[in-house]
UniProtKB/TrEMBL annotation:
Molecular function in Gene Ontology: NAD+ binding; prephenate dehydrogenase (NAD+) activity; prephenate dehydrogenase (NADP+) activity
Pathway(s): Amino-acid biosynthesis; L-tyrosine biosynthesis; (4-hydroxyphenyl)pyruvate from prephenate (NAD(+) route): step 1/1
Tree of life domain: Bacteria
EC supergroup of this enzyme: oxidoreductase
Domain Prephenate/arogenate dehydrogenase span(s) in chain numbering: 2-282
Protein name: Prephenate dehydrogenase
The family this protein is said to belong to: Belongs to the prephenate/arogenate dehydrogenase family.
């Protein structure tokens, strides 16, 4: 791949363009908002000047509802040898392209499983896709050279290619992305008019559950409008579980011992099913989930504290598998939770205590 055209210079499009430009590909940028394309160009994502001839690959980074139209226009103009999109829904755009009479041999639907709560070119990063799955949905019609260009793109972005059927992909992202986003938003909505005294008690749990609710609603309306059926089916199942859970909780309020036992059993069932589902979420580097020991370290909110902790862990020969930070309410302090292999936890705790850290294991 020597040349590429990225159509749509939001977070994903600009990040793709940055990654390609850093690998020596001449990238041309286009957007319905010329100012946004100029911003992406100023960030080093390429040039906002139109290509003089046919480019090797056109990457359409438009909202799902507009993908087919943008692709169809680009294919009619013959701007590239191969065409792909990076929308989060795959079945609908392909069927729309087919209805438009487009040459599907030159097209491949893809979806990088990466993103951020922020949108726009200023939020973009060439490293956005590193180590992340990138779904490819080729069919028997897909030209081999187009598939090779897509694989080259994924390699330049340092992502991991995953081949799936388009409709299977849409059902999968409804489960692991679209439905959870709505549930996160529903939980976060409970906080909008809550008492300030209650919100101030927020900790890591509510932050984890509501983090993705900070995303741009306009973008998510586009995504959900393109995949409503699978998401609605999943939410219907969640609603049924919620109804059962509400009945179980009401039973726990009862003065009848039998009803209380039934209610407790219902709550235990949903919690255990949650345990069983959670352990299926892939762990580090996509491996099977691992159970780590948590070593807590008290820190002041001052420059260099985290660097010192990681350096001291390295001197002790301990690899930190993951890290979380709990910030103290109303204080310039917090608790850094270091996740390590269970056998390494005592060694790390002892080493950090020797170096003067306040350790909580």
């Amino acid at each position: 791949m020597r040349t590429a055209l990225v159509i749509g210079t939001g977070l994903i499009g600009t990040s793709v363009a940055m990654a390609l430009a850093q690998r020596g590909v001449v990238v041309h940028l286009a957007d319905h908002d010329p100012e946004q394309a100029r911003t992406a160009a100023a960030l080093g994502a390429g040039t906002d000047e139109a290509p003089e001839g046919v480019v090797d690959l056109a990457v359409v980074a438009a909202p799902p509802a507009h993908v087919a139209g943008v692709l169809g226009d680009a294919m009619r103009r013959g701007v590239a040898y191969g065409y792909l999109d990076v929308a989060s829904v795959k079945g609908g755009p392909r069927r729309e392209l087919e209805a438009l009479g487009a040459d599907l041999s030159r097209y491949l639907g893809t979806h990088p499983m990466a993103g951020r709560e922020k949108s726009g070119p200023l939020a973009a990063s060439a490293e956005l896709f590193e180590g992340r799955p990138w779904v490819l949905t080729p069919t028997r019609d897909t030209d081999t050279e187009v598939l090779n260009l897509a694989l080259e793109l994924v390699s330049h972005c340092r992502a991991v290619p995953v081949v799936m059927d388009a409709d299977a992909h849409d059902r999968a992202v409804a489960l692991v992305s679209h439905m959870p986003h709505l549930v996160s938003s529903l939980v976060a909505a409970r906080l909008e008019h809550a008492e300030e005294s209650a919100v101030r008690l927020s900790g890591g749990g509510i932050r984890d559950v509501t983090r993705i609710a900070a995303s741009d609603p306009r973008m998510w309306i586009d995504i959900l409008s393109a995949n409503p059926g699978p998401v609605a089916e999943l939410l219907s199942d969640v609603a049924a579980d919620l109804d059962e859970t509400v009945r179980a909780l009401r039973a726990l309020e009862s003065g009848d011992d039998e009803k209380r036992r039934t209610g407790a059993a219902g709550i235990e069932d949903v919690l255990r099913r949650g345990n069983a589902g959670q352990i299926r979420v892939p762990g580090k580097h996509g491996s099977a989930p691992r159970v780590y020991e948590v070593v807590g370290v008290l820190i002041d909110d001052q420059p260099g504290q985290l660097a010192r902790i990681f350096a001291d862990a390295g001197r002790a020969g301990v690899n930190v598998e993951d890290v979380r930070i709990e910030h103290a309410t109303g204080q310039q302090a917090g608790l850094v939770q270091l996740m390590v292999e269970p056998k390494a936890a005592p060694l790390l705790s002892a080493a950090l205590r020797e170096r003067g850290w306040g350790v909580r294991q």
